[in-house]
Structure formats: C-alpha cells, structure tokens
Amino acid sequence: MPGTNYLQIFLNASLIIQVMYILLAAMSVICWGLAFAKLMQFRRLLKIVAEDTESLQEAKELQTAFLNLTPTPGAVTRKVAQAGYDEYQELRGLSLPQGERTQIILDNLRHTLRDEVGRQAGKSFRPTAFLGVCANAAPLMGLFGTVWGIFHSFQGFGNMSRAANLMVVGQGLGEALGTTIVGLLVAIPATLFYNYFLSRLGELQRNLTYFAQLLLKLIKADLHQQQVRELQARRTATTLVKSRPAGDS
Length: 249
Prior knowledge:
Blueprint lengths: L5 H7 L2 H44 L3 H6 L8 H16 L6 H28 L3 H26 L7 H82 L6
C-alpha cells in the first residue's frame, strides 16, 4: 500500500490491537530465529549421523567402532552408542546358559537402543513445537484483533453523522484488518518451517535407527566372540584336567 504510514496505524489503534501487533511481531521474530537455529542444528545432526554410520559400517570390532565415533560428548550418535554399550556391559556378566543369556542381552539392547533413539530425536525436535503453536495461534490472534477493531469502530455510531460514521468505520476496518494480515504473515512461514522440520525429524530418526541396528550387529558379533572364548577356555581347562597325572592333587 503506497504511502501507508504503518507506525501511524499502530499508534492510532486501540490498546488491544496494539498488544496484538506486539505479540505477533514478537512471535515472528522468535519463529524466524528458531527456524534458522534448527536449520543449522538438523544439518549438523544429520552430518554427524552419516559420518558415524559410515564408521560403524567400516568397523570390524566394537571397541574400534567406539573409538571412531564423533568425539563431541553431546553428539546424538555417541549418546545412543553409550546407552547401548552401558547396557551391554551391565548384562554381559549374567550367570545364565549361553543361549538364554544371549537372548536376554539382545532383547534388552533392542529396547534400550530404540528408547534412546526416540529420546534423542524427541529432544532435538522439542523446541520446534513452538512453530506449531505460532502456526495455529497467529491467525486466531489476528482474527481476534480484527473483530475487536470492527467492534471498536462501530461504537458511538448514534452520536455521529452518516458521513462521519463511514469515515470512522473505514479507518477502523483498515486498522483492524492489519492484525489479520500480520497474523497470516506469522502463521504461513511458521507452518512451512514446522512441516519441513517434521520431515527432517523423520529422516534423523530413520538414520539413527539404522545406526542403532549397525551397533547392535557389532555387539552381537562381540558377544559371539566372547562365547567362543569362553568355550575355548572350558575346553582348555578340560584338556588340562584330563592330561594331569592321576596321582597329582
């Protein structure tokens, strides 16, 4: 709108509409700041997951896989791997028959890794929920401002001439509709960003799930090697006992 003095429109508006403008402007600033921050975060997270997944694919042993993970303490892949490794270390010493122990360890590890993947994915998305709030609330706030502005414009009709009424109503409607426009300007980008981050969250969760599956495969191989070592140790002990002279004690 050429020649429109937006500051004057704001200053001439009623207090309620001014509050709506301020709230919507604050929501817009927060949404854009949050969107740029989450864009950078998801890009970084997906890069870390891709690099660490490649490391697991190339690793031959569990210990080597851990050494090659991203060294950043807060990396999502390291947190998932640490949760699985801690659970494995806690359960590997169970005094149970080999087959039963293996099944218990693998079942518990699947649950632990699945829960940790969900926890890390949810933690990365949690602040983004504000975008969804803005996408739903901003149009309603704008509509409320518009309705209030129209209501305010129609007050005092009885004490004015017809020409004055039309002028006041026209000015009031113009000011009131401004909140709807601002509300839509907040809601549309918020909706687009929210849906985009939902898709990125799905991608992150799928990649983390694949990472967890590779980790479980390495743990399973390590568990098998442990069973082989235990079996060899028992065979060696049995051989030593059989080869010992009968008179030895």
